Amino acid sequence: MGIKTFEIVSTQSNIDWVGKKVTGAHNGTIAFKGGEIFLNDGKISGGKFVIDTTSIKILDITDPATNAQFFGHLASDDFFSTEKYPEATFEIASVSGNRVEGNLTIKGITHPAGFDAIVNVNGDQLTATGKLVIDRTKYDMKFRSGNFFKDLGDNLIYNDFELNVIVNAIH
């Protein structure tokens, strides 16, 4: 059987993000630019995902002006610095059972990250889902973090954000 390469279909793959703060949460999507997953004898053996940070969308804010303002803030240096770093990447380092470990690079900063993946392979089609919990402060996103700013009260934004990943890929 050997190694098979599956190309990520960016139009059928997606990341749902959730960021929480004291007073509630925000959520939205971010798109894949591309990438590939390697299967060895039917099991994931490696791969790389390329994420388009410029594609970030906020779904819970319906007012266009507020949404645009929030998007501008997420794109700024307080968060993703999308002009300087239009891509983020996740490179698979190892897989053990359902556990995928790899290196996540955001804003040119790389840290290990891992998640449990559910993978289905049906002929030449692969679907994978997983949930990553990321500490944004490790990637120089310190805006309103309790680690760096005191007395924020209701304005505190939690450091951890969730990425719910859905990947569709074809061989």
From TrEMBL:
UniProt-listed SMART domains: YceI
Gene3D superfamilies hit by this protein: Lipid/polyisoprenoid-binding, YceI-like (2.40.128.110)
Protein origin, superkingdom: Bacteria
Entries under InterPro entries matching the protein: Lipid/polyisoprenoid-bd_YceI, TTHA0802/YceI-like_sf
Chain ranges of the Lipid/polyisoprenoid-binding YceI-like domain: 5-170
Any Pfam family: YceI
PANTHER family: PROTEIN YCEI
Name of the protein in its database record: Lipid-binding protein
Originating species: Puia dinghuensis
